Amino acid sequence: MTNTTSQLRPLGAGDVVTFDFPYPDGGSKTRACLVLHEDPATGELIVVYGTSHLGLHGHPEHALVLRERCLLAQAGLHRPTRFRLDRRIRVRPDDPRFRVSERCGTARLGRLPAWLRLQLPERHARLPRHSLFAERAGIHPVIGRRPPQASRQASSRMRRPQSGSMAFRTSQRKQAASGRQT
């Protein structure tokens, strides 16, 4: 996949595109994303994260889920997709992270139907506000993440060892040793 420099028409709100969406800790993945908003003041687009994992973590009002075959076909998607409107990035329309789909020959996979496109300004207005600088860097709300490895280890030390485990045998030996010393 390469970037798109020639589009049949400019990208706009409601377009489903292939975009190399960044991860908060570095790296990225090319995926189906949605153009949520066009900013007339800056000429930039707000692109939101798309995933085939439909579990609604966090705020369901910040998600747009496409399941019906007719909607998926119109959007150019081949499986149900959830767009996380609160996970977004602000980019220029000629950003090199837009990728040409081999299937379509452009970055645009499809478009939402008009009745869904009409909902986008209201949905965008309900999102938590961030600075333009933060949106350009990418908004990645922390929702449903597992605790860091050290926290998981600390909490497992506080649990009672299960019978037959190495920790159980070690704790039995320690108890026996402490009983002999008294």
What does it look like?
This protein is of the alpha+beta class and 182 residues long. Helices cover 27% and strands 25% of the residues. It contains 6 helices and 6 strands; from the N terminus they run ββββαββααααα. The protein has helices spanning 69-75, 114-117, 120-125, 132-137, 149-158, 166-181; strands at 15-22, 28-38, 45-51, 63-66, 81-91, 108-111. A 6-stranded antiparallel sheet has the order 4-5-3-2-1-6. A hairpin with a 5-residue loop joins strand 1 and strand 2. The longest helix is centred in the C-terminal third of the chain and has 16 residues, at 166-181. The termini are far apart. Mean pLDDT is 82; it is low at 1-7 and 145-161.
Characteristics:
182 residues, 6-stranded antiparallel sheet
Main β-sheet: number of strands, strand sense, barrel status?
Answer: 6 strands, antiparallel
Distance between the first and last residues' Cα: 72 Å
Instruction: Average the pLDDT over all residues and give the rounded result.
Output: 82
Number of strands: 6
Described by the principal axes of the CA atoms, the overall outline is elongated
* Percent of sequence in beta strands: 15-25%
Category from helices, strands and their pairing: alpha+beta
Uncertain residue ranges: 1-7, 145-161
**Which percent bin holds the helix content?**
25-40%
| Helix-strand string | EEEEHEEHHHHH
Gyration radius (Cα, Å) is 24 Å
**Major sheet strand order:** 4-5-3-2-1-6
Number of helices: 6
Compact overview of the structure:
The chain contains six helices and six strands. The chain is α+β, with helices and mostly antiparallel strands and 182 residues long.
